Amino acid sequence: MRVRALLVLCLLLVPAGCGAGDREGAVGGAPLLTPDEAQDRDGVVAVQGFLWARPGDNSFRLCEAALESFPPQCGEPAIELTGVDVTTIAGVDFSQNVFWADGIRARGDLADGVLTVEAIELGAHDPATGLSFRILVPVELSPGSSDFVALVTNSSAVPVGLRFTNGQSADVTLSDVETGAQVYQWSAGRGFDDAIRETTIEPGETLRFPLLETEIDLEPGAYDLVGVFSGSPSPGTIRGRAVLR
Predict the structure, then answer these.
(1) Got the DSSP string for 213-236?
(2) Do 3 and 45 contact (CB within 8 A), yes or no?
(3) What's the half-sphere exposure (Cβ side, CA atoms, 13 Å) at 184?
(4) What number of other Cβ atoms are within 10 A of residue 60's Cβ?
(5) Nearest-5° angle of CA 128, CA 132, CA 135?
(6) What is the mean pLDDT of residues 220-231?
(7) Structural contact between residues 135 and 227, judged by C-beta atoms closer than 8 angstroms
(8) Do residues 30 and 47 lie in contact, with contact meaning Cβ atoms separated by under 8 Å?
(9) Cα separation, 90 vs 242, whole angstroms
(10) Tell me: the pLDDT tens digits for 159-180?
(11) Which of 68, 70, 157, 224 could potentially form a cystine with 175 if both were Cys, beta carbons 3.0 to 4.6 Å apart?
């Protein structure tokens, strides 16, 4: 059975629309919290912390800190996670049946201290410019829940000018895990305005670029994902994995 995964994104052809990016400090429209701040919260949130998981015990947690040991342990306070496959998250380390990764941002519905994960952010950071490039990747690409959203954040103390040579702001490709063959590219077959665009991202500001797609027609399974920011300067390339159910 083939899966047609619906995505939400902006064609970035009209400057008055979403071509310049939506400006927000939250993650995908949700408030960004630490595990400590999330303790008494409910609803749709984004939480950033130290990911710690021991699948054998069905234990998946996002922790306030990592305790020094090997493998590292979860430093309280922490929130429980459900609905996430840690083996598909880029940058995860593994030893002695424990998975862990630092600086993970998970977005989803939080209730009674348990976060039902809808999306995991993959990211790249350029310390020279202070720019970070992140992509919100749904835990599962499926009809109605497969939005890719590119976000660029300026963590420096000074404004940074961004320059785009056309109407495209970002791109996502998917490749076969075993062969490496590219099977999907968002920009393929699309037309973009040739006009040069320039904008300034202020200190602490985040620009949000949804990527609109009619459908992705691929077999269910895991695919290697590459995300590229089309502006200059570029914070780097994102590499991770997406799963189609």
Answers:
(1) EEEEEE-SEEEEEEEEE-SBS---
(2) no
(3) 24
(4) 23
(5) 155
(6) 86
(7) yes
(8) no
(9) 10
(10) 999 999 999 999 999 999 889 9
(11) 224
